[in-house]
Amino acid sequence: MSKRGVGRAFAISMALVLVFALVYNFIFAGSDPFMPGDNEIIVAFLDVGQGDSVLIRSRNHAVLIDGGDINRAEPVMGYLRRMGITRLDYVIATHPHSDHVGGLISVLSRVDVGRVLMPYVVHATATFGTFISVIENRQIPAHAPVPGESFRAGIIYFTVLAPVYGFAGSNMNDASIVVRLDHGETSFIFTGDAEAGSERAMLASGQNLRADVIKIGHHGSRTSTTEAFLDAVMPVAAVISVGGGNRFGHPHNDVLSRLNERGIAVYRTDLMGSIFMASDGGRVVLLDIYS
Questions:
Q1: Which of 97, 139, 225, 279 could bridge to 186 as Cys pair (CB 3.0-4.6 Å)?
Q2: pLDDT digits (tens, 9 = 90+) for 268-281
């Protein structure tokens, strides 16, 4: 392992130190464990069952990626209220499937949103139709990003890696917006439900895919997280957003084997609930915050 790789792994292993400090401050100093420091971001992989929702926040800005299914709207709104978030700079709807955009209907209806990023695809469902109607009724600016575009919300900086338009065809999952979040020396990749085809396109594009943490594609389905893609990302940690006992058999054993063979730490929302990670630009740590 490279010197930098050892450093990242060591940073992850230091989580208990940060947890102790966090608990100490919360109990004895009354500080808010959800409030990042001046140069810190918190990435919250929210437990929305069999779906995706990721909240990225700094002290003054926030970005939400997906919102789980429509029956998970209140839990997502509960997280936003508990974290004191009344405005989202960006909402990224990775693709139109209901387990990603359903919960966003309530969010877009009740929270001030600066801009919605969504792929240029449609889905003939009542859920997606309602999602579009809310955007139109509230006159929220919407944009279909292309690979290479970058967006900033304060110190939250992310670059679009996918989808490559004209490639996804009839596979709605491969239309997923994939973004890379960079904060100092640390980085995260959020993959939506991108499958092997989209992963091949990202590999062929020559973009920088390296990241410390990856949100595993399509809830750990064996159609995603190919060996070549993992080897390009080289993550230290992987997060799988998945519902317990789901009927799809996610996460698939093949995916878990690929991760284990590479020594990648795996965190699952079905086993751990919401998963919180923090970065100060120099290291990524796991936070022990009960959601």
A1: 279
A2: 999 999 999 999 99
Distance CA 56, CA 100 (A): 16
CA dihedral 250, 252, 255, 257 (to 10 degrees): 130
Pairing type for strands 112-117 and 142-143 reads parallel
For residue 12, what are its two tokens? 């992850």
Q: Which residues of 123-161 are buried (b: 16+ CB within 10 A; e: fewer)?
A: beeebbebbbebbeeeeeeeeebebeeebebebbebbbb
pLDDT band at 165 (very low <50, low <70, confident <90, very high): confident
pLDDT > 90: what percent of the chain?
71
Report the 10 Å Cβ neighbour count for 223: 18
Chain segment 76-119, per-residue pLDDT in tens: 998 899 888 999 999 999 999 999 999 999 999 999 999 999 99
User: Distance (Å, rounded) from C-alpha 68 to C-alpha 76?
Assistant: 8
- We report the CATH number of the domain holding residue 273 as 3.60.15.10
Domain of residue 34, residue span = 3-287
- Of 66, 58, 49, 180, the C-alpha closest to 118 is 66
Please state the domain count of the chain.
Answer: 1
Residue among 15, 19, 47, 53 at smallest CA distance from 33? 19
Looking only at the bridges linking them, the beta strands covering 54-57 and 41-45 are antiparallel
Closest to 227 in 3D by CA, of 187, 200, 267, 191:
200
Side chain identity at 75, as an amino acid letter? P
The alpha carbon of residue 94 and the mean position of all alpha carbons in its chain are separated, in whole angstroms, by 10
Cα separation of 199 and 217, whole Å? 10
Which among 8, 60, 6 has a CA at the least distance from the CA of 37?
Answer: 60
Structure tokens at 213: 């943490």
Quick one: average pLDDT of 227-240? 97
